[in-house]
Amino acid sequence: MNHFTGGCHFSWGCEGYMNICDNCPAIPDESQKNVAKDNLERKYQNAQKASFQIIAGSGLTLEQAKKSKIYREQETIYNINSLIDTTLLNDKNKSIAKKIFSLEEENFYILTGAQNMEDPRKGFKYLIEALEILDQQLPEDLKKKINLLVVSNSINKEFDRVTFKKQKIDYIKDYRLLSLLYQATDVFVNSSIEDSGPMMVSEALACGTPVVGFDTGVLTNMVIDDYNGYKIPMKDSLQLAEGIKKIFELDKNQYAVFSKNAVQQVQEFSSYEYAEEIFTKILEQDDQKTL
């Protein structure tokens, strides 16, 4: 959000960016409150002088940009959801990915992750609550099939509460290896409660892995209920558990449809080809204005 706020990258519900950012809750020092206001005004004036146009990077950012003081008068705000290179991130090896990681075919693998699991924005406490609920709902024989894979530099100690088998995976920089990991897992769970992405949502979908998560960031318009995952009301741990359970209960044919739909959603709304279409439209509009 930094392009249209007085400095914040995430608003946490604050609507100052819609007006003048004159009472920023992120600045405790009253004598410095004017900094956010001055920043926003400077951005506004620069945008007006240079006729800036914004392209949103997620459904959430799109809605925020439409309401912002700087860009609400923009005729059309296009949205590209976490641009994905589908030559690297795809589902071409999904049928053998579990074998590559020595994962058991009959087990169900939940993937989640973040660079900083202590960040409240990432909402991991809700995921932990959801997994505790899921543990209560499933019989013992099914509990044994569930495994949690966490990609992060460090694990939040609260994850000790999770009774399912769990494994930490160090942060992966190689996109080919990351693609295989997505393909090897059965669902990606995003518990973020304030996010313009995360990239992992679109990356997982590109690899044919259904996504369950809260209705924010790219998940807002990349995940469709009963199509490629489940979009959950914010901070609702019970429904988050239900969404995971629904994916767990899919038979092979049903899962294959979800997986295919996940890939299709990225191809249509998050691929390089889609981005090319958007930029072509923008350039054509600019050409018409100069005629």
UniProtKB/TrEMBL annotation:
Organism: Chryseobacterium elymi
Domain Glycosyl transferase family: 119-263
Pfam families reported in the protein's UniProt record: Glycos_transf_1
InterPro entries membership: Glyco_trans_1
Signal peptide residues on this chain, from the entry's feature table: none
GO-annotated molecular function: glycosyltransferase activity
Lineage: Bacteria, Pseudomonadati, Bacteroidota, Flavobacteriia, Flavobacteriales
Full protein name: Glycosyl transferase family 1 domain-containing protein
Origin superkingdom: Bacteria
